[in-house]
Amino acid sequence: MAAAAARVELDHRVDDNLEELKGCVDLGFEFSYDVIPELCGTAPVLELCYSMT
After folding, report:
1. Which parts of the chain have pLDDT scores under 70?
2. How many C-alpha atoms does 16 have within 13 Å on its Cβ side?
3. Alpha helices in the chain (DSSP H)
4. Is the pTM of this model over 0.90?
5. What Pfam families does UniProt report for this protein, alphabetically (predicted)?
């Protein structure tokens, strides 16, 4: 039961991070993993986005 709750919490955090990233992109911010790889440590959702492209 605790594992399921932890998974739901993780999914919620990923969803929140993706929404924040989308908002930044909508505002015109661009992120380049090649230029600033440390960004993935700051915003872990970026690693997910880079792995899908």
Report:
1. 1, 33, 40, 43-44, 50, 52-53
2. 6
3. 2-26, 39-42, 45-51
4. no
5. DUF1685 (PF07939)
